């Protein structure tokens, strides 16, 4: 389904009325249109198949770990429609020298982050896309994020950081996993 800007604007106008605001006062007059455009940007991943980015392939001579750390992302938690944001660390061990462009790993993170999400699902979707498109020997995805639904409201724990991981192939084995984890965490302040 295509994004329905007019429908979103109507819903936001109704929301403003329902919370007791006057949607026609000067400061709020453009808010439904503005927020409608913002939501489209925040949910832009719904309009794409992020796997397409991984179809840019190169062949190298080696099958050693490729790891891109500290990919900043923002997503929206599907329970509260509040943002969660943090950093993704994405790595894989190629097979037959098959690699993709480094920026493509970040594009995949973006494509799956810009949807109503759960952090666990976001993590495994990134891993499955790399696994399914590159057929590498192993994949590791680690996400660290702060959820606004836990910091601004509810339990109100602003410093809490949620860490999730998804491992595929040989990166599931304890030795390889431990080495890769230390590379991910080793870069941290
Ligand atoms: N597992 C998981 N839980 C999430 C994520 N984002 C938000 N949540 C949690 O979803 C849960 C929803 O719980 P509910 O009891 O239905 O909602 P609530 O009454 O607003 O819960 P509180 O946040 O505890 O006030 C909360 O515990 C949130 O912290 C996520 O990405 N993964
Ligand atoms: Zn939430």
TrEMBL record:
Keyword NAD: no
Binding positions (Zn(2+)): 77, 80, 149
InterPro entries: GTP-CH-I_C/QueF, GTP-CH-I_N, GTP_CycHdrlase_I, GTP_CycHdrlase_I_CS, GTP_CycHdrlase_I_dom
Catalytic activity: GTP + H2O = 7,8-dihydroneopterin 3'-triphosphate + formate + H(+)
Any matching Pfam family: GTP_cyclohydroI
EC numbers on record: 3.5.4.16
Source organism, top-level taxon: Bacteria
GO molecular function: GTP cyclohydrolase I activity
Pathway: Cofactor biosynthesis; 7,8-dihydroneopterin triphosphate biosynthesis; 7,8-dihydroneopterin triphosphate from GTP: step 1/1
Domain GTP cyclohydrolase I: 9-184
Sorted UniProt keywords: GTP-binding, Hydrolase, Metal-binding, Nucleotide-binding, One-carbon metabolism, Zinc
Keyword Magnesium tagged: no
NCBIfam families the UniProt entry points to: folE, PRK09347.1-2, PRK09347.1-3
Family: Belongs to the GTP cyclohydrolase I family.
Subunit: Homopolymer.
Name the UniProt record assigns to this protein: GTP cyclohydrolase 1
Gene name as annotated: folE
């Amino acid at each position: 389904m295509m994004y329905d800007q007019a429908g979103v604007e109507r819903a936001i106008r109704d929301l403003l009325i329902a919370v007791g605001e006057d949607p026609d006062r000067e400061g709020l007059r453009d808010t439904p249109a503005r927020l409608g455009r913002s939501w489209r940007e925040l949910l832009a991943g719904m309009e794409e198949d992020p796997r397409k980015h991984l179809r840019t392939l190169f062949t190298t001579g080696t099958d050693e770990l490729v790891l891109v750390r500290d990919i900043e992302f923002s997503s929206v938690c599907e329970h509260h429609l509040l943002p969660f944001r943090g950093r993704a660390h994405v790595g894989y061990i190629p097979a037959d020298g098959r690699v993709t462009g480094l920026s493509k790993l970040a594009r995949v993170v973006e494509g799956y982050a810009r949807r109503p999400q759960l952090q666990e699902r976001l993590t495994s979707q990134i891993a499955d896309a790399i696994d399914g498109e590159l057929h590498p020997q192993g994949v590791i995805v680690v996400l660290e994020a702060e959820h606004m639904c836990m910091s601004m409201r509810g339990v109100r724990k602003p410093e809490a950081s949620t860490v999730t991981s998804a491992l595929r192939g040989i990166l599931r084995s304890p030795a390889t996993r431990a080495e890769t984890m230390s590379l991910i965490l080793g870069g941290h302040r």
